[in-house]
Write a structure and sequence with these properties.
Order of helices and strands: EHEHEHEHHEHHEHHEHEH
Structural class: alpha/beta
Shape: globular
Oligomer: single chain
Radius of gyration: 17 Å
CATH class: Alpha Beta
CATH architecture: Alpha-Beta Barrel
Bound molecules: phosphoenolpyruvate
Number of strands: 8
Low-confidence stretches: none
Distance between the termini: 13 Å
Number of helices: 11
């Protein structure tokens, strides 16, 4: 049985003060949540403050990116050591906004996934097709490349640690959710790719989140699908009641 994992990606939102307020509101609702792994991913500037708020709860903190390098002349980057100092446990890697606006490629994303695992951080690897891919009937081929390249040379033992987030780009921040059937179809496909790469046991263990306009209203149906193991939440993660509503749907 895979445990659902619900992560809130706060993106470039919230000052430290606002982040503390949101984290406190979420803590009131979810501090003792055992049935779902809950992860808050504030901007780098608020990681420490949010970690302080949720210390002594079951809530985890994640970052929205991480460098593939250890240290040195990499202006503007943040390392695994720096993140771990702030009690970060998860790292979102290869989000479609990073692929699109900062031209992150599968090669670099794979380097980051490897580095994270090597340093005992849990990667959340984001994959997903654009609208034009779906319309061209290329959803599976696009997602397959992202999964195979993003997880290239990852040892089979890591599949219980890492998380894959399937996020159709056309559903992110648009209010358009994939139907539960559309999402389930791609999730099952991703699991079949993992099975082909590393075997049935790892494919059965790996958690695959859905992301793209998930809200308390559509979460129950999405999370009821057999291959959907949680959600990566953008907009709705900025409101404690909505975020907690999604987590409760996953219990
Ligand atoms: C995201 O950016 O990962 C995301 C799923 O955003 P939203 O929930 O706003 O669509």
């Amino acid at each position: 049985m895979r445990k659902n994992i619900i992560a809130g990606n706060w993106k470039m939102n919230k000052t430290v003060e606002e982040a503390v307020e949101l984290a406190n509101a979420i803590k009131l609702e979810l501090a003792d949540c055992k049935d779902v792994d809950v992860v808050l991913c504030p901007p780098f500037t608020a990681l420490k403050a949010v970690s302080d708020v949720i210390s002594e709860t079951l809530i985890n903190v994640g970052s929205q990116n991480m460098s593939s390098e250890d240290e040195g002349a990499y202006t503007g980057e943040i390392s695994h050591t720096m993140l771990k100092e702030l009690f970060v446990r998860y790292v979102i890697l290869g989000h479609s906004e990073r692929r699109e606006y900062y031209k992150e490629t599968d090669f670099w994303i794979n380097k980051k996934v490897k580095k994270a695992l090597d340093k005992n951080l849990r990667p959340i690897l984001c994959v997903g097709e654009k609208l034009e891919d779906r319309e061209a009937g290329s959803t599976e081929s696009v997602v397959e490349v992202q999964v195979r390249e993003g997880l290239k040379d990852i040892p089979v033992s890591a599949y219980t640690e890492l998380v894959i987030a399937y996020e159709p780009v056309w559903a992110i921040g648009t209010g358009k959710t994939a139907t539960s059937e559309q999402a389930q179809e791609v999730h099952a496909f991703i699991r079949s790719i993992v099975k082909d790469m590393v075997g049935a046991e790892a494919a059965d263990a790996v958690r695959i989140q859905y992301g793209g306009s998930m809200k308390p209203g559509n979460a129950p149906e999405l999370l009821a699908q057999p291959d959907i193991d949680g959600g990566l939440i953008g907009g709705a993660a900025l409101d404690a009641t909505s975020f907690a509503g999604i987590v409760k749907a996953g219990m």
